[in-house]
Specification:
Pfam families: Abhydrolase_3. GO terms for molecular function: hydrolase activity. The protein has two domains: about 1-30, no CATH class; about 30-315, Alpha/Beta hydrolase fold, catalytic domain (Rossmann fold, 3-Layer(aba) Sandwich), CATH 3.40.50. The protein has eight helices and eleven strands. It has helices at about 95-105, 125-140, 150-155, 165-180, 210-225, 265-275, 295, 300-315, and strands spanning about 10, 15-20, 25, 45-50, 55-65, 75-80, 110-115, 155-165, 190-195, 250-255, 280-285. The protein is globular and about 55 Å long.
Length: about 325
């Protein structure tokens, strides 16, 4: 072993390694692609816009080209990428391609949020950055914000939040914060939680009970949130959150996958939300024979196409 190379302090392969000198090595979600004003496959245009000047944080905006360029209003989606709070970005090929396809199919305008990640930044930063992105988007509600696409084309009466895995976790917590703080002039119609990253100390449903399997999820959570109270922290286990009924929307769509380790947690969230006293409508869809975030890696498979169509329909329902 090279004596000059720093020793590994924490090994979370195949995701990430942290060394004793504080350096971080990520193995997944490290590639990025530029935005495009003319994506030939989807006819969607995209661009990157800074939403938080002090931290130099950007979001990638997506807009169909086949709209009235002057003032056609579209449902507005704010999307939070997954990656265990520690890998991936809004600019990776995986998320860029997925948002292009989703925007083209749903005929919406989308904001894909890039947020600061652990371990360089404590977990609370993820939620704070995401809320800052919502506030930045809401600054366009009167048509005089800094980004013209949002001024001209965002329907702030039809805002949706969505995300996969850790991004679904973020979406849930942003909807909770919206329920408590609101954003003037904005109506949060619904949230879409794809394979949400929730967990808990005690197994639910037919969740694995062996300590080795459960520790894999718990280790990642403890890494992401070193000051957590544990796996029943409301940040990771919404069933333990007394504020659950304050969710700031009236519609929730939960999507789970049959072979996903987190599948039972999605169902558990669905059941707990229904009995929490929340006044909205929650729906759930389970995809058979599929694993965690399969739709990102097999976007053209039959199940991924069906899931995309469901989400597109959900974003365009007049309720």
């Amino acid at each position: 072993m090279d004596p000059t190379h720093p020793k590994v302090a924490k090994d979370l392969s195949p995701l990430i390694k942290i060394y004793e000198d504080g350096s971080v090595e990520r193995f997944m979600g490290i590639d990025i692609v530029p935005p495009s004003l003319d994506d030939p496959k989807t006819d969607v245009q995209s661009k990157d816009v800074v939403y938080f000047q002090e931290a130099n944080l950007s979001s990638r905006l997506y807009l169909p080209k086949s709209i009235d360029p002057s003032n056609q209003k579209l449902p507005l989606l704010i999307y939070f990428h997954g990656g265990g709070f520690c890998i991936e970005t809004a600019f990776s090929p995986t998320y860029h391609n997925y948002l292009n396809t989703l925007v083209a199919e749903a005929k919406i305008i989308a904001v894909s949020v890039d947020y600061r990640r652990v371990p360089e930044h404590p977990l609370s930063t993820v939620y704070d950055d995401s809320w800052s992105a919502l506030q930045w988007v809401a600054s366009h509600v009167n048509g005089n914000g800094p980004e013209e696409w949002l001024n001209l084309h965002a329907d702030f009466g039809k805002l949706f939040l969505a995300g996969d895995s850790a991004g679904a976790n973020i979406s849930h917590h942003m909807a909770l914060r919206f329920g408590e703080e609101k954003l003037p002039g904005v109506i949060l119609k619904g949230i879409v939680l794809i394979h949400p990253y929730f967990w808990g100390k005690e197994p639910v449903g037919d969740e694995p009970k062996d300590s080795e399997t459960r520790s894999k999820v718990e280790t990642l959570w403890l890494f992401a949130s070193p000051t957590t109270s544990g796996s029943d922290d409301p940040l990771i286990n919404p069933a333990f959150d007394p504020r659950l009924a304050r969710l700031g929307c009236l519609r929730v769509l939960v999507i789970v996958a049959e072979k996903d380790l987190l599948q039972n947690r999605g169902w558990y969230y669905y059941e707990n939300l229904k009995k929490s006293g929340w006044k909205g409508v929650v729906e759930i869809m389970e995809t058979k024979e599929e694993d965690h975030v399969f739709h990102l890696f097999k976007p053209s498979c039959e199940n991924a196409v069906a899931m995309l169509k469901l989400i597109c329909s959900y974003l365009n329902e007049e309720k």
